[in-house]
Amino acid sequence: MSDPRPAPDPGDRAAPAQVAELERIARDLAVEAGRIVRDERPRDLAVSTKSSRTDVVTVMDAAAETHLRERLAQLRPQDAVYGEEGGARAGRSDLTWVLDPIDGTVNYLYGIEEYAVSVAVVVGDPGVHGAWRPVAGAVAHPAAGLVYSAHEGGGARVSASQDWSVLAREAAAHGVTSQTGVTSRDLATTRPDTLELALLGTGFGYRPEVRRDQARRLVHLLPRVRDIRRGGSAALDLCAVAAGRLDAYYERGVHSWDIAAGWLLVTEAGGIVSGVEGSRPDAHGTVAAGPGVHAELRELLRGLPE
Ligand code: IPD
Known about the structure:
With 306 residues, this protein is an alpha+beta fold. It is built from 8 helices and 15 strands. The chain has helices at residues 16-39, 59-75, 105-110, 168-173, 208-221, 234-243, 256-268, 291-302, and strands spanning 47-49, 56-58, 80-83, 87-89, 95-103, 116-124, 132-141, 146-151, 156-160, 184-186, 199-201, 227-229, 248-251, 272-274, 286-289. Strands 4-3-5-6-7-8-9-10 form an 8-stranded mixed sheet, sandwiched between helices. Helix 6 packs parallel to helix 7 (256-268). The longest helix is centred in the first third of the chain and has 24 residues, at 16-39. It starts with 15 loop residues before the first helix and ends with a helix. The structure holds D-MYO-inositol-1-phosphate (IPD). D-MYO-inositol-1-phosphate (IPD) binds at residues 100, 103-105, 203-205, 232-234, 251, 253-254, 258.
């Protein structure tokens, strides 16, 4: 049966009070799922594969996404849900929750701390490039005990979660520490004005043919930037751009659940997020950076041979 309501225009703005409340929900849920992922990890982590033999999903991805879906069914039953592991659930409102229960799954599998839970709420269709935009979201970094969050028009921040034992080393490095009572800090992107001095984060897909293409582009990028980092979680890479620990991020082939919350974190921290061709992340890639280098990076990417 067709839906009689007009499709929401992803350009329409939501009311400020509503998006602030959505940020609070996103933050709470990301922290809850992060605690499950961090604290309930079994000794023998059961793993299966998806698009290739290296594209893994663990029992904890499934457990965290199930938790997020159950909580959203209680708190926001009217909204749609679009998750990495559980697919799409239709809703009756204009909003869709976009969930990545563990972003950086390979890091998680290997016991590397750079993994995250990403929870975002978007308008438009997150399954179609250019047809959606985030209005609130949060990225929990469970190993650090930190959560990054933002809502449209309300800035971006990183907080030491009161529910977690925050690692003092990590918190201090991020400018927040529960010991000194400073538990939250506003985020701002960096301001290098030339790509030559920009530290660029990127990532690679799981399919060999995608990687071959990514490696070919890297050959053109690497000589033009300060250096390149591959952290293993697109969501945390975008948090790093928002927090000024990376100057820019580019990746081709990410999914909406990898970038939905991080995209908003960057723009609310004063940066710009676009596609390579379009004004929103597109099939050619996601480009995120401070205003000083975004245009230069995008022009470089546009000029690369297909
Ligand atoms: C992956 C990570 C990685 C990026 C990949 C993503 P997953 O997500 O974000 O950094 O390079 O493109 O697929 O599989 O860990 O959720």
